[in-house]
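User: Just a sanity check before I run the rest of the batch. Below are the structure tokens for the first item. I only need the designed sequence back.
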């Protein structure tokens, strides 16, 4: 639809139509924010729709004028305009505002589809670019521009084939991994939930962990406590559990400190010793902290988020006897750069401790599982997601969900997965090359539009003088 709307004659008309398309796409996509704050949802949606429309309105596919003849750009010009606009939109939304809100990206519409394997080459932005090309090919076919349709289709097929054949690392061993999901009621807020009940549910579920597993994974912020976990009763209790199960045990903790809260993943070894931790870098806006808190507090109730969480630093990595485990906590699974940072430190497996219990619908658990599938393809790693009430699951390096739990159920899920090394092209180069290419493409599009418009003005002047 956007491909046809970008043929509107003026920037104002393109902006209006792209705003409508953006609202239809991003409104439902960001609806999960209403679970935290209605005003936050409205503010975030307004900003995101504006960015979506501005960027996509800049590169015109076809320039028209009521007074001048129709200007038909070259097929190459048309092919780069829409993909470039979509790439810049997704890239910008992944970085700003609030440090980025990369949820309901164009690329996420293709999870499980044939285009996702190109993520090995260029991440989710490569998927976005191909979606733009599909739009171009569709419009070209509908308007009988056979040459443009053929060129676009050939390029799409070539990139998809290259993605399916691209290297994605190699196996360096296997692990028997167990996910513990305590289960329980969904749609409940942390401030209204007993932390002791959550811990007890996971302790009860851990009884079903089979003997001989190499690694046990608990979800995000199952353990909540005042102060540091080190040398606390929770530390001793989890250490005893790890000793009893004779395997490293990783899980999420939520520490309440006077200066702010800390959300971390920590690991105990089979001897019961707390040996490593990673603190969440990317916080959820209006979920873990309130942007413009003083302003928002004057307009709405922010008591559900009484204190802002402190952002951690550094790459997500936990070193264990089972191998080096990359970590992206909950919301961070939507940020490809967080997974890439873990890979740069030698992560052999990607662990996603998350907690979508506060969401009453399936939207966020499904979105997180879909994002984990993309991270698996991008990094060439097995991904293990652990959630208190689901979805928990295992994903292979091709993005296939091997197994997953039911929402709300108490369960232990086990799979044998590979420890993997090596890199994909994407983990080596990141998003930079595609973003630069898209910027140059938009600049080229604007330059060509100006030159052609000037040329047509000269034709008009000549025709009037005659």
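Assistant: Here's the designed sequence for the first item:
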């Amino acid at each position: 639809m956007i491909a046809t709307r970008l043929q509107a004659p003026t920037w104002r008309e393109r902006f209006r139509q792209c705003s409508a398309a953006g609202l239809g796409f991003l409104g439902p996509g960001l609806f999960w924010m209403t679970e935290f704050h209605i005003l936050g949802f409205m503010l975030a949606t307004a900003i995101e729709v504006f960015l979506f429309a501005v960027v996509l309105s800049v590169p015109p596919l076809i320039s028209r004028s009521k007074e001048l003849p129709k200007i038909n750009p070259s097929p190459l010009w048309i092919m780069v305009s829409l993909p470039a606009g979509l790439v810049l939109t997704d890239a910008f939304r992944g970085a700003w505002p609030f440090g980025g809100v990369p949820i309901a990206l164009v690329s996420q519409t293709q999870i499980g589809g044939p285009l996702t394997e190109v993520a090995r080459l260029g991440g989710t932005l490569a998927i976005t670019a191909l979606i733009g090309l599909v739009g171009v090919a569709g419009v070209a076919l509908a308007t009988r521009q056979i040459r443009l349709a053929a060129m676009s289709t050939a390029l799409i097929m070539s990139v998809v084939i290259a993605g399916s054949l691209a290297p994605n690392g190699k196996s360096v061993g296997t692990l028997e991994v167990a996910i513990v999901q305590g289960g329980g009621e969904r749609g409940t807020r942390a401030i209204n939930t007993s932390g002791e009940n959550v811990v007890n549910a996971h302790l009860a579920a851990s009884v079903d962990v089979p003997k001989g597993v190499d690694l046990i994974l608990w979800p995000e912020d199952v353990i909540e406590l005042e102060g540091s976990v080190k040398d606390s009763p929770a530390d001793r209790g989890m250490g005893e559990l790890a000793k009893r199960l004779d395997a490293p045990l990783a899980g999420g903790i939520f520490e309440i400190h006077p200066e702010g809260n800390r959300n971390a993943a920590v690991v105990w070894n089979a001897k019961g010793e707390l040996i490593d931790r990673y603190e969440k870098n990317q916080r959820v806006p209006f979920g873990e902290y309130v942007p413009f808190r003083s302003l928002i507090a004057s307009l709405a109730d922010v008591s559900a988020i009484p204190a802002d969480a402190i952002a951690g630093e550094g790459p997500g990595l936990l070193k264990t006897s089972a191998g080096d485990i990359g970590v992206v906590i909950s919301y961070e699974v939507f940020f490809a750069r967080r997974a890439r940072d873990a890979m740069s430190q030698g992560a052999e497996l990607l662990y996603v401790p998350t907690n979508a219990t506060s969401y009453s619908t399936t939207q966020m658990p499904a979105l997180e599982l879909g994002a984990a599938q993309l991270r698996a393809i991008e990094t060439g790693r097995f991904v293990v997601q652990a959630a208190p009430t689901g979805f928990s699951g295992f994903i292979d390096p091709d993005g296939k969900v091997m197994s997953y739990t039911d929402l709300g159920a108490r369960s232990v899920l086990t799979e044998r997965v590979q420890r993997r090394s090596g890199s994909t092209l994407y983990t080596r180069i990141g998003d930079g090359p595609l973003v630069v290419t898209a910027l140059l493409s938009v600049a080229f599009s604007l330059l060509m539009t100006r030159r052609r418009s000037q040329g047509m003005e000269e034709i008009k002047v000549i025709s009037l003088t005659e």
